[in-house]
Every structure is written in C-alpha cells, then in structure tokens.
Sequence to fold (179 residues):
Amino acid sequence: MSLNSLQNLFVTELKDIYNGEKQLVTALPRLAKAASSPQLTEAITKHLKETEGHVARLEQIFQSLGLPDRGKKCKGMEGLLEEGKEMMEEDGEESVRDAALISAAQKVEHYEMAAYGCLRSYAQILGNNEAAKLLEQTLKEEEAADEKLNELAEGGINEAAAAVGASGRTRSSTPGSGR
Fold:
C-alpha cells in the first residue's frame, strides 16, 4: 500500500500495531515468568489480558473498514521484544533483572502510546469517530500500564536493584535495603 493519503497511512499503521500487539500476546507470558517480584508478575499478567483486548479492538476497526485483520511485520516491536528477551536471558541478581524488565516493558509501552496517539489523531481527522474512541480507550490502558510500571520501579524494585553491589552482593543487609 502506498502512502498517498492519510487513510492509507492510517491503515498501514493499524496493520503495524496489530502485528505488534500479536507479538506482545506471545511475549508477555515469558516476561511474567521471568519476573521475580510478585507485583511485577501480576502487572504483566493483567496487561496481557488488556493486550488481548487491544487485539480485539483493532480487529473491530479492521472489520468496520472492511479490511482483513492481518498485520504487516512490526519491526519496531520485534526489536524492542528482542532487547527484552536478551535482558531475561542475562545471569544476575533477581532485583536487577526485575528493574531491567520494567525498563524493557516501559520502552514497549512508550512505543505503543506513540502509535495509538497517532492512530487516534488520524481517525479523528478522517471522521472515523468509532475507531478514534476505540483507539483512545487502548491509549488510556497503555498509559495506565506505564504508570503502574513506574509505581513498581519507584516503589522498591529500583531501590532493591541499587542495593546490589558490583560484585552481585547486597551492599547492606539493614532493614529497608531491599533484602
């Protein structure tokens, strides 16, 4: 499809994020399993359910446009997920790995927020109010997921990771040190 109209760009970007969301549905269970923090595991598992809803909303938009719900390969998401996979495979302290998983997950969330923000704007300009409403709903869920990741990072996971010294041992075993 050539990019000779905003409508074509809208469809191209829909296909891209659709494939990205499908990649996430596959990747999120592995990410949840790699997390050691129960709260992080819970947040990732909750977002998996939301991501399945994002896929369904995109399929609804494709249907309303009379288009097949096939995505083009989302290379951006593929790259972000590959970076996250590399983090999961690294040896190291659990708390540091959890901080790395949050970082990887937030990169994905920011990518998605950018995609859904653009798509919502395109839908509004094109007068596709139903698509704009569905895309806005997904955008809000992506923003909430990012905020939850921030809360987890700032609520102790990053502090626990900071307590790990260069040798992989905890710097201090005093109360409140994360261990």
Confidence is low (pLDDT under 50) at residues 166-179.
